Amino acid sequence: MEKVKEDSIILLQAKGNFELPEDFLLHFHTHIYCHQGSISFLFNDRPYTCNAGEFVFWFAGSKLTNLTFTKKIKASVLLVERDFLLANIPDQSWSIDVVLHSKENPILHLNDKTDRQKVLSNFQLLYDKFSETEHRFYSEVLKLQMQLFILEMWHTFANEYEHRKRTLESGSLFERFMQLIQEHCLKEREVKFYANRLHITAKYLNFVCKQNTGITASDWIQRYARERIILLLQNKNLNISEVADQMNFSSRSFFTRYVRKVLGVSPREYRQRLTGI
């Protein structure tokens, strides 16, 4: 395991006139549990408010503006350095679901007291292990604690995700389409597949999407596929052919052409940019 940076994990207690570190979203994934007051922000140009008893999560690089904490704010804030977290993701498929869900739903509603306590305990355990630099097996133990942290957060996320999934099953045609994309876009990128699942024509599905958002069904599918490609290419344990296989491309050359279309560069060029080589 690579040497852990000194500021890889930061735990803060927000009170009163609180501000996060400058440019925090460039370098850190942000986890906030709100004890009191509220947090308002624009996320992907949409307004949100995180109230007491709720949890908000922003991935590093998220489009976040107009961040405001009320004067009575009390919150626990955990910042985890982006590369350190990505290097210790225990299961890539679940991470993709988390990313796609969190990009649309940055706030988790922790109605269960046990979940709230678990989130706060999870914050403290990770920070404590990070601070225990004299441990004989510091890097190995910290890596395991990071993985445990992620699994515990995914457990909390899964409860909300499943609840939302059940709600959307009885929702509008567009909502059901969006749910299907989250479930299947790793391998399915044709509008016809989703139209068949919804028992409508591809033409009508495009009409529904344009009517609701001004964006075609194929564009929505491509957006979600793009997120999955980025996550898979960030996983250093997978070579490019394995990424292509996971996304059900018939050949690596076809995968390369698709990546050029959605990212503007080849898979190899994208990975070179990540490493700075």
Automatic annotation (TrEMBL):
GO MF term list: DNA-binding transcription factor activity; sequence-specific DNA binding
Domain of life, per lineage: Bacteria
Location of the HTH araC/xylS-type domain: 175-273
Gene3D superfamilies: Homeodomain-like
SMART domains found in the cross-reference section: HTH_ARAC
Entries under InterPro entries matching the protein: Homeodomain-like_sf, HTH_AraC, Tscrpt_reg_AraC-type_HTH
Keyword presence, Transcription: yes
Pfam families: HTH_18
Protein name: AraC family transcriptional regulator
